[in-house]
Amino acid sequence: xxxxxxxxxxxxxxxTAGAVGGLDDLDGDLDGDGRTVHPVGAQLLWGDPDPLxxxxxxxxxxxxxxxxxxxxxxxxxxxxxxxxTRLAVLxxxxxxxxxxxxxxxxxxxxxxxxxxxxxxxxxxxxQAGRRITVVGxxxxxxPVFYTPWAGGxxxxxxxxxxxxxxxxxxxxxxxxxxxxxxxxxxxxxxxTPYAGVKRIPPGHALIxxxxxxxxxxxxxxxxxxxxxxxxDPAQAVxxxxxxxxxxxxxxxxxxxxxxxxxxxxxxxVPGMGPAERRAARGAxxxxxxxxxxxxxxxxxxxxxxxxxxGVPGTVLGHGTGAGERLLAVTFNDLVTSxxxxxxxxxxxxRTIAAxxxxxxxxxxxxxxxxxxxxxxxxxLTDEPAPSLVTAERHRSRLAAGSADHFTGAGARQVLDAHPxxxxxxxxxxxxxxLLRPVTxxxxxxxxxxxxxxxxxTVYRAARRLARTPYRAGIEAAADRLLSANRTGAVxxxxxxxxxxAALNWARPGPAARWLTGEALAEVSVRLMEAATxxxxxxxxxxxxxxxxLTRHAADQRILEQAAEIRSQxxxxxxxxxxxxxxxxxxPESLRVQPGARASVLRAVLAGAGIHDLPPGxxxxxxASHTATAAAxxxxxxxxxHLMALFDAPLLADAGLVEARVVRKALRAASEGEPVxxxxxxDLVATELWLRRLLSRRGTCWTxxxxxxxxxxxxxxxxxRTLQA
Length: 724
Known about the structure:
Layout: E1 3-8, E2 38-39, E3 42-46, E4 52-55, E5 63-71, E6 74-75, E7 78-79, E8 83-93, H1 97-108, E9 120-128, E10 131-135, E11 145-149, E12 152-156, H2 159-166, H3 172-180, H4 185-188, E13 198-199, E14 204-209, E15 212-217, H5 233-252, H6 274-281, E16 285-291, H7 296-307, E17 326-333, H8 339-352, E18 358-365, H9 391-398, E19 402-406, H10 411-415, H11 421-427, H12 435-444, H13 454-466, H14 470-482, H15 494-502, H16 517-532, H17 540-562, E20 569-571, H18 577-584, H19 588-591, H20 596-607, H21 623-637, H22 639-645, H23 650-653, H24 659-670, H25 677-694, E21 701-702
Parallel strand pairs: 16-17, 16-19, 17-18, 19-20
Antiparallel strand pairs: 1-4, 1-12, 2-21, 3-4, 5-8, 6-7, 8-9, 9-10, 10-14, 11-12, 11-13, 14-15
Helix pairs in contact: 3-16, 5-18, 5-20, 7-20, 11-13, 11-17, 12-13, 14-16, 21-24
């Protein structure tokens, strides 16, 4: 896990003035009592009075620091030393050094949005005198956390190090909200699983001035009353094309890297080639790779990465020079039923892989790659997320990939239309644009007598949402948590039921049905308080779409930590700032049309000179059905272990669930009953994360004043106080 950490305090010197470089150059940072403390294994980017470190296995080209010429400021009675102005960018950033200097000057004048316009995925920290600015991203894949400490504020891109720093306890209320309303920012607020550690919202920046802090947004917020200017659809699609091509090119033009330490090759193994033996050892291949599932998102990235010019070879001389081929990885589940439904996607992947610029590798997954497999061997992540139960499944796929691996994560959330956007169209009096989406929705679950009434039912739900004020919608969600019906639309399942449930300002998550009344009451109080607070008014569809993107980006971040393979970098260009910003400019009337994502990505490929696509490319995939079947199969195989996990769960000690109820739900799901598997994955992942956290020893800090206890040293509280 890689992260950066620093702080701003009233104190002028901590003892690191002039120290730049590795940990050997570090004299120590004071905690306010004259005692040293600094992160373990850190690289000091700049020292006192407001130090900043990069922690983890950062590549040399992923950490860049630019300094502007200092300007002296005269003051009465003497002269101040020159004010230092510098910028640190961590991650994959395509900006040149000159562009970084221009951005530094712009940020010094307050133009923070300029710092998020470069291609790539990165975090920016700006120091202008004693003012520190930390800029988060738009999607939430690179969040920023902060906490009061030593008379000032400490910040980091991971919450666990800050929890270690202040020896925080668990925030049970946040865990309850994460299980009850995972896609509702009003319930989660700015909290984290650690009491006292806060996060800034996506699209915001944290500004620190000698210990004081301010959170400000750098993106314009759409008005609820007046629709924004309509962008020409063709121009909007061209913007997405340019942004996505630049995002892929940013990775291709970066220096190539090979694994630092390759395990010894055991030699020839019957039935295994060099690539298979390397994947079995858990080391990525040198160079560039990409997922190739046969879907439109992964295919687009694979074809762009194979066709765009990049830097051949690696810094260590690996690769095949100008003829280097992109490693395309296809995951083939051999255990889960429903292979007939997946066969068209696999055939499209094989057709695309016939490109001479691609080297195709098919990962044959067995029972060891099912969901809920390998739960005892995973690492501790920053936060809980449903991806913890599928980490082993993803790790088997990524082990066959390259040192730099593209993934299509986030394409659906960025390009597709959230069902709540139908209400935005009604607010703009564009009813005719609802005809095609509601007709396609009526056909999604097959022909039935109920399908005749689906268009009218969806239209009524969209009109109700369009006429519901923000406060009334949040209060209704709070009341729904305390009612008996927390499962969405009554009598409707499948795509129609999910769409109707999404046509609300907020809705309970799939795990809410198993939480205790006390936990739901606490989340309901959070929602009621949020409804009474002033907030920036957004249109309901846009607000729900941004919340869904934030949730997916957070899960993708935890997945990268849970399935991490040393020396490998996962790249999700769809979550980059410039791609998210360009996608938000797509007109809603274009988004809601069936097949909109495929048409946009087809235009992206056409703009890059790629026209020959296999038949059926962009068709509706069966990924959700495949994931459901795999989850049920994996749950059935891991049922004894899961039953033991919830024999005396920590979630029950915290008062969030009753162990008997969860065991009953697990048994019912394994027997094929219609139980929401996503909710069970949330419960299992949270319980698993709690056990890993409480079994952890040590902290992220060292020094004479370093915390000697791990975070949440007091364990899970047995009783919780309901805050009214």
